[in-house]
Design a protein that fits this description.
mainly alpha, 5 helices, elongated, disordered C terminus
Length: 175
C-alpha cells in the first residue's frame, strides 16, 4: 500500500511544480501585454483571460502539493500543548473532516464543470474564451487535494508518516 501512496504523492508533487510554472507564464503574459500597450497603444487580445486561466492552474493544481508539504494554514495555539499522540489524532480528524468537505466541493465542482462543458460556457470579450476547461482544472485540483488527504490518513493508519519538510523545522512553522 505504501508504494502506491508514494507514487500518488510523487505525481501530486510534480503537478505542484508544474503549477508553479503558471506563475512564470502569468508574468510573461502580463509583461507582453504591458509592453504592447506601451509600444503600440494596444493590449494583447485575451491577455486577461489567459492570465485568469493560468491563475486557476497555479492555485488549484498546487493545493494538493501544498497540503503534502504542510504549507497550508494551521492554527495550533491550543493543540501544540497536547501530548504528541493526541496531536496526531486531532490532526488526522482534521484530515478526515477536510476530506469530506473537499470531496463534496470536488463533486459539486465536477458537476458544474460538466454542465459548463455541455453549454459551451465562454466568457465575454473580443474572443469567446472557453471557461469550462478552467472549471475542470478547478475540480481536478480539488480531487487531487482530497486524494492527498486520503494519502495522509492512510500514512497515519499504516504508521508511516511522511518525513518533515524543511519548512516544518524552521522558526514560525506550525510544529
Amino acid at each position: 500500500m505504501l508504494p502506491i501512496i508514494e507514487v500518488v504523492e510523487k505525481l501530486i508533487a510534480r503537478l505542484g511544480i508544474a503549477s508553479g510554472f503558471a506563475t512564470l507564464l502569468i508574468t510573461l503574459v502580463v509583461v507582453a501585454d504591458v509592453a504592447a500597450r506601451a509600444a503600440f497603444s494596444s493590449p494583447l487580445d485575451m491577455a486577461t483571460e489567459i492570465s485568469e486561466f493560468l491563475m486557476v492552474v497555479l492555485v488549484f493544481l498546487g493545493l494538493a502539493a501544498a497540503q503534502q508539504n504542510r504549507q497550508n494554514y494551521a492554527i495550533d495555539v491550543a493543540s501544540r500543548h497536547l501530548p504528541t499522540g493526541l496531536q496526531n489524532l486531532l490532526e488526522n480528524l482534521g484530515y478526515l473532516f477536510s476530506l469530506g468537505l473537499i470531496g463534496t466541493l470536488a463533486w459539486l465542482s465536477t458537476k458544474q464543470a460538466y454542465s459548463a462543458f455541455q453549454r459551451g460556457e465562454a466568457g465575454f470579450g473580443i474572443v469567446a474564451f472557453r471557461i469550462w476547461p478552467a472549471r475542470f482544472l478547478l475540480a481536478l485540483g480539488l480531487w487531487l487535494l482530497a486524494l492527498q488527504f486520503v494519502c495522509d490518513l492512510l500514512r497515519y493508519l499504516l504508521g508511516a508518516p511522511r518525513a518533515p519538510a524543511d519548512s516544518e523545522t524552521k522558526i514560525g512553522s506550525h510544529e
